[in-house]
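User: Could you write out the 3D structure of this protein bound to alpha-D-glucopyranose? I've included everything you need below.
Assistant: Certainly. Input first, then the structure.
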Amino acid sequence: MKNTKNLENKPFDYRRMALYQIWIRSFCDGNGDGIGDLYGVYEKLDYIKSLGVDGIWFSPIYPSPNADYGYDISDYKNIHPDYGDLEQFRKVLDKAHSLGLIVILDLVINHTSDEHPWFLESRKSRSGQYSNYYIWRDPRFGKKGKRPPNNWFSQFEGLAWEYGEERQQYYLHVFAKKQPDLNMDDPKVREEVKGIMRFWLDMGVDGFREDVITYISKHPKLPDGLPFLPVINGLKFYQHGPNLMTYLKEFRKVALEYGAVQIGEAPMTPVRAALNYISGEDRVLDMMIQTDIMMADCVMIEYLHHPFLLIKLKQAFSRWQTKLAGKAWNALYLENHDHPRVISRYGSERYWRQSGTMLAACYLFQQGTPFVYQGQEIGMTNIALPSIDMYEDVASVNAYHTFHKHEPEEKRMRRIHLASRDSARTPMQWNSGENAGFSEHKPWFYVNPNYERVNVEEEEKDPDSILHFYRKCLALRKREKTLLEGTYREYFPLRPKQFLYERRCGNERILVICSFSKSEQRCRLPKSFAGKEAELLLCNYPGKAGADRTVLTLRPYEACVLKYK
Ligand code: GLC
Ligand code: CA
């Protein structure tokens, strides 16, 4: 894909695209060591293309001690030896481009690994070349001796500060201990970031997904947060910090030189704040990955679980659809490597095929650029491992050891089963053979036992499979201008088990109807559609939904897409 010099000449229009996310360790093992890699990705590029997507976002593929599986980087300009090398990456990039797929990398610059050479130097002394690359502060001293500089919790692992003996100071880590936060206020650090961007863009990469990008500018005084707020008591002082916009503008300049697309990850960001970054010609990011839609069965984080509430999900969808309308562009997703599988959360494992397909329809036809996460397209579901010792994810393991310690073991494990990110990180299920076709070797992590039924090969054979439904949805989105460009309007926001939304372009209207119920539902159509003739564009059941044009009878988890002229 040719790089050009300015945004309007971007060699591709990301708004017309759909992207596929790869979490490489569990995607496909090409060299038989039980770990997914770029050799495996290379083999599967045709499969990815066959889905009807237009590009790939790779979660980190760089060298990393894997404290947070790639999100702790120890070398920004290289490939993790588990996954291949730069030459193999170039091969993947070239083949992807030749298939018409763009390639986006994860840019993780809020923190590095504590094994990154910058940090190894930085921790040695207060006056070296790298001493200011991280956020070091003197201890506070109280009756009990030294204490961290403030009371913040990290999001993954206890307090947000770790002591470095050599400097006799604490360093800040908003995530795990092995993920020290970079000091973005140091201009040298920002130059490093630009160097990293150029390194990959010069190679031909098409853009970045920018990890927790809204955290990179900290409040200069690092004040105490509310003491009782768990996990995120410091958030207010590191989210949307005072220099965030300035820094994003600097990085934007580099991206614009190459016509690269920038997608920011913005946890817990309200729409109003998001608009500052993603709207207008002088926007600093093209899209934002929001987290509101991940909170329809929990409060803030999945560990604070409650039963799924469709109304919460609909509110989140419609808030972003309507507030961005005409101003900015949405990033649409229901799954990624940070959240349990969506069928197990918002759908039903019992109505696996029906709810898996309905969930596809419920988000793929909204306005925005859809993301599909590996395995989502075949309806992979959560895994329930019997013991916490079998879990890998640092956040899951620490949540288990920190919260609800007095609850019975069974209940604590139940929380892990509901919330763990590891459910999204089990090996991709390619066929019903050994190790689900992921590897000839014992995989690095447990395969979901449902692989004999839920796998690519089986679903290729079945025209009604979840896999084929994803293909149909993505093709339909491409074909119907109204689905790409049309306005969005939700009907009956208070119906607890049904989600109805319209896309409209001129006189043409497309109505998407989704049932989130295990039982049959009567669904009265909105007045302006009642009695009108419609073309059925798509349905996840054979035959037409209901006979009547005014009241439909929806089967469990039925989804249909109707076109009106
Ligand atoms: C982002 C990533 C997540 C990671 C965290 C820290 O939220 O998506 O996987 O653990 O940032 O880098
Ligand atoms: Ca391998």
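Residues 218 and 238 are 4 Å apart (CA to CA).
User: Perfect, thank you.
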